[in-house]
């Protein structure tokens, strides 16, 4: 038998050490049942929104049942072990029926027809509410769609061409593995997934189109939760400038692509610790990276040895171009430096974009112009703990350096 009611569980142990209970009644279901093969072993199970797998109490452990306010639809069941008081608020008649059955369980003359086996009564049994799913063959896709309870979903190597939109409904999804498929694009709605923390998209076709729509990666929710992004082996030619918006990103794998230039904004991701940019076409790196506290960077198999295309135009650059430029530039630097709030509803959208795309000086201060920079070499080993680079070269790498002031330029 089940009783739909509101329940507050008070732990008497907590009361002893003066930790007050929250005083909150949760919408719950109480069920009475018995262990499958043991006829006299009765249980009370408490399901709530906070505990969907249910809390099991042995009827034998009931110490007392308080029914003083039964006519108001209130009762409390006190258990010896665990030391819980289960306070129930429900419709009075139903509660009376429930307690009558409970009484017969205690006295041992319960009518079997009203009590189901424990295995049958769970509201949401473990089988119907899985949190992990691995699909190894396309025939294994669930007909009714993915269970909403999923937190880990593995769909690797299934030759999927189109992103399955029912994945967007999985609000609890923490890990999504779609590596080794044939996906070219993701819907922008993906950026609103609320819990996504690890995203494995290696070996797909994300960079196949000339212009990549990156909105799926830069949405309002995903930028707050994503910690690992693997977009290696995707024929990607460039990364979006707004990648710095991934404010929790720790691991970024963009190896085995066709990237010739990293966005200068990448160093603004303060949480970044592991960066794999090996097997690309990079000739230099943005100086903002030196501001990252990277623990591991793999830069092997790039074009750092070639310097043909990089022209040293340092001598032609005036201080004005490098770190003064225009009044907008000066004002923007102040806005960014002091982290003043800005949004498209306060200032023009073009200005928002301008501020969003800001680079970093070698000192870490914002620089808004990305037109003028100076190439300087830095020894990567001086900056990062583990650097993986090609055997036949030293670890000094050319950096595109931006400057916020003459002081930084002279240094
Ligand atoms: Zn500076």
From TrEMBL:
It comes from the Eukaryota. The keyword Nucleus applies. Residues 1-115 form the PIF1/LRR1 pleckstrin homology domain. GO terms for cellular component: cytoplasm. Transmembrane segments: none annotated. InterPro entries: Leu-rich_rpt (IPR001611), Leu-rich_rpt_typical-subtyp (IPR003591), LRR_dom_sf (IPR032675), LRR_domain-containing (IPR050216), PIF1/LRR1_PH (IPR057437). Keywords: Leucine-rich repeat, Nucleus, Repeat. Gene3D superfamilies: Ribonuclease Inhibitor. This is PIF1/LRR1 pleckstrin homology domain-containing protein. It comes from Parnassius mnemosyne.
């Amino acid at each position: 038998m089940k009783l739909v009611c509101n329940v507050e569980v008070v732990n008497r142990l907590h009361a002893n050490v003066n930790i007050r209970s929250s005083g909150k009644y949760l919408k719950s279901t109480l069920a009475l049942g018995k262990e499958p093969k043991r006829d006299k072993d009765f249980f009370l199970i408490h399901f709530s929104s906070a505990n969907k797998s249910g809390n099991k109490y042995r009827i034998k452990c009931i110490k007392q049942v308080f029914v003083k306010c039964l006519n108001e639809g209130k009762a409390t069941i006190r258990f010896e072990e665990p030391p819980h008081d289960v306070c129930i608020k429900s419709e009075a008649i139903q509660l009376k029926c429930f307690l009558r059955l409970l009484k017969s369980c205690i006295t041992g003359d319960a009518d079997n027809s009203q009590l189901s086996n424990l295995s049958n009564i769970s509201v949401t049994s473990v089988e119907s509410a899985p949190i992990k799913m691995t699909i190894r063959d396309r025939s294994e896709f669930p007909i009714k769609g993915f269970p909403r309870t999923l937190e880990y979903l593995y769909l690797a190597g299934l030759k999927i061409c189109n992103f399955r939109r029912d994945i967007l409904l999985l609000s609890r999804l923490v890990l999504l593995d779609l590596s080794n498929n044939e996906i070219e694009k993701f819907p922008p709605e993906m950026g609103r997934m609320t819990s996504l923390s690890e995203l494995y998209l290696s070996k797909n076709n994300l960079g196949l189109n000339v212009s990549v729509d990156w909105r799926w990666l830069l949405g309002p929710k995903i930028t707050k939760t994503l910690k690992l992004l693997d977009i290696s082996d995707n024929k990607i030619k460039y990364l979006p400038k707004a990648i710095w918006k991934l404010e929790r990103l720790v691991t970024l794998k963009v190896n085995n692509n066709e990237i010739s230039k990293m966005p200068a904004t990448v160093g603004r991701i303060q949480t970044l610790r592991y960066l794999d940019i090996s097997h690309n076409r990079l000739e230099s790196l943005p100086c903002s990276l030196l501001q990252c506290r990277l623990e591991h960077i793999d830069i092997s198999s790039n074009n750092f040895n070639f310097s043909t295309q990089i022209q040293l135009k340092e001598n032609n650059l005036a201080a004005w171009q490098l770190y003064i430029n225009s009044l907008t530039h000066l004002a923007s630097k102040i806005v960014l430096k002091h982290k003043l709030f800005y949004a498209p509803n306060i200032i023009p959208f073009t200005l928002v974009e301008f501020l969003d795309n800001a680079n970093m000086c070698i000192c870490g201060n914002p620089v808004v112009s990305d037109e003028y920079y100076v190439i300087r070499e830095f020894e990567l080993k001086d900056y990062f703990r583990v650097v993986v680079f090609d055997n036949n070269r030293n670890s000094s790498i050319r950096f595109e350096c931006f400057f916020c002031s003459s002081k930084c330029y002279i240094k």
